[in-house]
Specification:
It comes from Anaerolinea thermolimosa. The chain has 82 residues and is mostly beta strands. The chain is 10% helix and 26% strand. A hairpin with a 2-residue loop joins strand 3 and strand 4.
């Protein structure tokens, strides 16, 4: 099955030549989960903070479907200066 993937912030380095947040298509076997996607991309699972599928936050055991759009975020720092 084919899905669209967006990698954000520092995860952009796992997709050389693509800008962070730009979608790309990926082929996965039927029944693949977000965890399977993370492993296929070579992302360190302990660095994954939030995953979205079709605009909704999902857990790593979420089963993906043909045509889904997944977004994966690492922890992101920032805030106000004193």
């Amino acid at each position: 099955m084919k899905i669209q993937v967006k990698l954000f912030a520092s995860f952009g380095r796992y997709r050389p030549g693509a800008l962070p947040g730009m979608p790309f298509e990926l082929e996965l076997p039927e029944g693949a989960t977000l965890r399977d996607l993370i492993h296929q991309l070579g992302l360190p699972v302990e660095e994954v903070k939030v995953c979205f599928v079709n605009g909704r936050v999902e857990e790593l055991d979420y089963t993906l479907s043909e045509g889904d759009e997944a977004g994966i975020f690492p922890p992101i720092g920032g805030g106000c200066l004193p």
